[in-house]
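Question: I have long wanted to understand how a fold can be written as C-alpha coordinates. Here is the record:
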Amino acid sequence: MIPILAAMLDCLLAPVNASAARRAGVPRRIEASGVALSFDDGPHPEGTPAILELLAQAGCRATFFLVGEQVERRPALARRIVAAGHRAELHAFSHRLQPRLGARAVAEDIRRGRAAIEDATGRPVEWHRPPYGIYSRAGLRAVRAEALRPLLWSRWGKDWRRLTTPERIARRALHEIGPGDVILLHDADFYSSRGSHRRTVAAVPAILAELKQLGLDTVLPV
Protein backbone atom coordinates (compact mmCIF):
# COMPACT_ATOMS: atom_id res chain seq x y z
CA MET A 1 0.00 0.00 0.00
CA ILE A 2 1.61 3.27 -1.06
CA PRO A 3 2.16 5.80 1.76
CA ILE A 4 -0.30 8.51 0.62
CA LEU A 5 -3.12 6.01 0.24
CA ALA A 6 -2.22 4.35 3.52
CA ALA A 7 -2.73 7.60 5.39
CA MET A 8 -6.08 8.19 3.71
CA LEU A 9 -7.34 4.66 4.08
CA ASP A 10 -6.27 4.43 7.70
CA CYS A 11 -9.00 6.94 8.54
CA LEU A 12 -11.55 6.27 5.83
CA LEU A 13 -11.48 2.71 4.54
CA ALA A 14 -13.19 0.75 7.32
CA PRO A 15 -16.35 2.93 7.55
CA VAL A 16 -16.55 3.33 3.79
CA ASN A 17 -16.37 -0.42 3.33
CA ALA A 18 -19.01 -1.06 5.98
CA SER A 19 -21.66 1.13 4.40
CA ALA A 20 -20.73 0.66 0.75
CA ALA A 21 -20.50 -3.11 1.15
CA ARG A 22 -24.00 -3.28 2.57
CA ARG A 23 -25.43 -1.17 -0.24
CA ALA A 24 -23.70 -3.20 -2.94
CA GLY A 25 -24.33 -6.57 -1.34
CA VAL A 26 -20.61 -7.28 -0.87
CA PRO A 27 -20.03 -9.47 2.20
CA ARG A 28 -17.53 -8.56 4.88
CA ARG A 29 -18.24 -11.71 6.90
CA ILE A 30 -19.05 -15.32 6.12
CA GLU A 31 -21.57 -17.81 7.47
CA ALA A 32 -19.35 -20.08 9.53
CA SER A 33 -18.64 -21.28 13.05
CA GLY A 34 -14.98 -20.32 12.60
CA VAL A 35 -12.93 -17.44 11.28
CA ALA A 36 -11.66 -16.87 7.73
CA LEU A 37 -8.01 -15.89 7.79
CA SER A 38 -6.91 -14.16 4.59
CA PHE A 39 -3.67 -12.79 3.15
CA ASP A 40 -3.44 -10.26 0.31
CA ASP A 41 -0.82 -9.11 -2.22
CA GLY A 42 1.29 -12.27 -2.73
CA PRO A 43 2.78 -14.57 -3.61
CA HIS A 44 5.98 -13.23 -2.07
CA PRO A 45 9.29 -15.16 -2.10
CA GLU A 46 9.87 -14.63 1.63
CA GLY A 47 6.51 -13.83 3.20
CA THR A 48 4.37 -16.51 1.58
CA PRO A 49 6.58 -19.52 2.46
CA ALA A 50 6.92 -18.24 6.03
CA ILE A 51 3.15 -17.91 6.42
CA LEU A 52 2.59 -21.34 4.88
CA GLU A 53 5.01 -22.89 7.35
CA LEU A 54 3.25 -21.28 10.32
CA LEU A 55 -0.14 -22.42 9.07
CA ALA A 56 1.15 -25.96 8.58
CA GLN A 57 2.58 -26.06 12.09
CA ALA A 58 -0.75 -24.94 13.55
CA GLY A 59 -2.90 -27.10 11.26
CA CYS A 60 -4.75 -24.01 10.01
CA ARG A 61 -6.10 -23.01 6.62
CA ALA A 62 -6.25 -19.62 4.95
CA THR A 63 -7.31 -17.85 1.78
CA PHE A 64 -4.65 -16.05 -0.26
CA PHE A 65 -5.88 -13.26 -2.52
CA LEU A 66 -3.12 -13.22 -5.12
CA VAL A 67 -1.90 -10.58 -7.55
CA GLY A 68 -1.60 -11.91 -11.09
CA GLU A 69 1.63 -10.11 -11.93
CA GLN A 70 3.25 -11.72 -8.90
CA VAL A 71 1.81 -15.13 -9.75
CA GLU A 72 3.36 -14.92 -13.21
CA ARG A 73 6.75 -14.32 -11.57
CA ARG A 74 6.32 -17.12 -9.00
CA PRO A 75 3.82 -19.72 -10.26
CA ALA A 76 5.37 -22.43 -8.10
CA LEU A 77 4.43 -20.49 -4.97
CA ALA A 78 0.82 -20.25 -6.12
CA ARG A 79 0.81 -24.01 -6.67
CA ARG A 80 2.33 -24.52 -3.24
CA ILE A 81 -0.54 -22.57 -1.63
CA VAL A 82 -3.12 -24.85 -3.22
CA ALA A 83 -1.12 -28.03 -2.58
CA ALA A 84 -1.07 -27.16 1.14
CA GLY A 85 -4.87 -27.07 1.23
CA HIS A 86 -5.40 -23.33 1.13
CA ARG A 87 -7.36 -21.24 -1.35
CA ALA A 88 -5.67 -19.22 -4.09
CA GLU A 89 -8.11 -16.49 -5.04
CA LEU A 90 -7.99 -13.24 -7.03
CA HIS A 91 -6.94 -9.82 -5.79
CA ALA A 92 -6.11 -8.29 -9.19
CA PHE A 93 -3.62 -8.63 -11.99
CA SER A 94 -1.97 -5.30 -11.16
CA HIS A 95 -2.52 -3.67 -7.78
CA ARG A 96 -4.39 -0.54 -8.89
CA LEU A 97 -7.41 1.26 -7.49
CA GLN A 98 -10.48 0.22 -9.46
CA PRO A 99 -12.01 3.73 -9.51
CA ARG A 100 -8.94 4.91 -11.44
CA LEU A 101 -9.57 2.36 -14.20
CA GLY A 102 -12.14 2.51 -16.96
CA ALA A 103 -14.71 -0.25 -17.31
CA ARG A 104 -12.77 -2.03 -20.05
CA ALA A 105 -9.47 -1.80 -18.18
CA VAL A 106 -10.84 -3.15 -14.91
CA ALA A 107 -12.61 -6.01 -16.69
CA GLU A 108 -9.39 -6.92 -18.48
CA ASP A 109 -7.42 -6.75 -15.23
CA ILE A 110 -9.83 -9.19 -13.60
CA ARG A 111 -9.77 -11.59 -16.56
CA ARG A 112 -5.98 -11.46 -16.79
CA GLY A 113 -5.49 -11.96 -13.04
CA ARG A 114 -7.89 -14.88 -12.98
CA ALA A 115 -6.13 -16.53 -15.91
CA ALA A 116 -2.72 -16.15 -14.27
CA ILE A 117 -3.86 -17.87 -11.09
CA GLU A 118 -5.79 -20.64 -12.81
CA ASP A 119 -2.93 -21.34 -15.22
CA ALA A 120 -0.48 -21.59 -12.33
CA THR A 121 -2.61 -23.69 -9.97
CA GLY A 122 -4.87 -25.68 -12.26
CA ARG A 123 -7.76 -24.75 -9.96
CA PRO A 124 -10.70 -22.44 -10.64
CA VAL A 125 -10.79 -19.04 -8.97
CA GLU A 126 -14.03 -18.45 -7.07
CA TRP A 127 -13.52 -15.36 -4.89
CA HIS A 128 -12.32 -11.81 -5.46
CA ARG A 129 -11.15 -8.95 -3.26
CA PRO A 130 -10.24 -5.60 -4.85
CA PRO A 131 -7.00 -3.72 -4.17
CA TYR A 132 -7.41 -1.42 -1.14
CA GLY A 133 -10.83 -2.98 -0.58
CA ILE A 134 -12.49 -0.52 -2.95
CA TYR A 135 -14.86 -1.60 -5.71
CA SER A 136 -15.89 0.68 -8.53
CA ARG A 137 -19.32 0.06 -10.02
CA ALA A 138 -17.65 -1.18 -13.20
CA GLY A 139 -15.34 -3.41 -11.19
CA LEU A 140 -18.14 -5.02 -9.25
CA ARG A 141 -20.09 -5.60 -12.46
CA ALA A 142 -17.01 -7.21 -14.03
CA VAL A 143 -16.46 -9.46 -11.03
CA ARG A 144 -20.04 -10.66 -11.13
CA ALA A 145 -19.94 -11.08 -14.92
CA GLU A 146 -17.01 -13.45 -14.35
CA ALA A 147 -19.17 -15.37 -11.84
CA LEU A 148 -16.72 -14.51 -9.05
CA ARG A 149 -17.87 -13.88 -5.49
CA PRO A 150 -16.69 -10.64 -3.84
CA LEU A 151 -15.42 -10.70 -0.27
CA LEU A 152 -14.05 -7.89 1.90
CA TRP A 153 -13.20 -8.24 5.61
CA SER A 154 -14.49 -7.48 9.08
CA ARG A 155 -11.17 -7.49 11.00
CA TRP A 156 -7.74 -6.30 9.93
CA GLY A 157 -4.29 -5.97 11.39
CA LYS A 158 -3.29 -2.78 9.55
CA ASP A 159 -0.06 -4.65 8.98
CA TRP A 160 1.02 -2.60 5.96
CA ARG A 161 1.95 0.38 8.12
CA ARG A 162 5.60 1.27 8.56
CA LEU A 163 5.45 2.01 12.30
CA THR A 164 3.27 -0.84 13.49
CA THR A 165 4.46 -3.83 15.52
CA PRO A 166 3.58 -7.54 15.56
CA GLU A 167 1.81 -7.01 18.88
CA ARG A 168 -0.39 -4.25 17.48
CA ILE A 169 -1.15 -6.27 14.38
CA ALA A 170 -2.32 -9.22 16.46
CA ARG A 171 -4.32 -7.06 18.83
CA ARG A 172 -6.17 -5.27 16.02
CA ALA A 173 -6.82 -8.46 14.06
CA LEU A 174 -8.31 -10.16 17.10
CA HIS A 175 -10.36 -7.24 18.44
CA GLU A 176 -13.80 -8.61 19.41
CA ILE A 177 -13.23 -11.54 17.06
CA GLY A 178 -16.02 -14.04 16.66
CA PRO A 179 -17.53 -16.67 14.37
CA GLY A 180 -17.93 -15.51 10.78
CA ASP A 181 -15.30 -12.79 10.95
CA VAL A 182 -12.87 -12.37 8.05
CA ILE A 183 -9.36 -11.28 9.02
CA LEU A 184 -7.26 -9.30 6.54
CA LEU A 185 -3.45 -9.57 6.65
CA HIS A 186 -0.69 -9.31 4.03
CA ASP A 187 2.01 -11.84 3.22
CA ALA A 188 3.85 -9.44 0.89
CA ASP A 189 5.33 -5.95 0.92
CA PHE A 190 5.15 -5.19 -2.81
CA TYR A 191 2.47 -2.54 -2.33
CA SER A 192 3.04 -1.54 1.30
CA SER A 193 5.88 -0.39 3.55
CA ARG A 194 9.14 -2.19 2.93
CA GLY A 195 9.55 -5.28 5.08
CA SER A 196 5.99 -5.11 6.41
CA HIS A 197 5.48 -8.81 5.69
CA ARG A 198 8.07 -9.66 8.35
CA ARG A 199 5.95 -8.01 11.04
CA THR A 200 2.94 -9.95 9.80
CA VAL A 201 4.87 -13.22 9.99
CA ALA A 202 5.87 -12.34 13.55
CA ALA A 203 2.24 -11.60 14.47
CA VAL A 204 0.66 -14.74 13.03
CA PRO A 205 1.68 -17.20 15.79
CA ALA A 206 -0.03 -15.03 18.41
CA ILE A 207 -3.12 -14.71 16.23
CA LEU A 208 -3.37 -18.46 15.66
CA ALA A 209 -2.76 -19.22 19.33
CA GLU A 210 -5.52 -16.85 20.45
CA LEU A 211 -7.98 -18.23 17.91
CA LYS A 212 -7.25 -21.71 19.25
CA GLN A 213 -7.72 -20.50 22.81
CA LEU A 214 -11.11 -19.05 21.83
CA GLY A 215 -12.13 -22.28 20.11
CA LEU A 216 -12.31 -20.64 16.71
CA ASP A 217 -11.17 -22.79 13.79
CA THR A 218 -9.76 -21.17 10.67
CA VAL A 219 -12.11 -21.95 7.78
CA LEU A 220 -12.28 -21.37 4.05
CA PRO A 221 -15.16 -19.38 2.55
CA VAL A 222 -17.72 -21.53 0.75
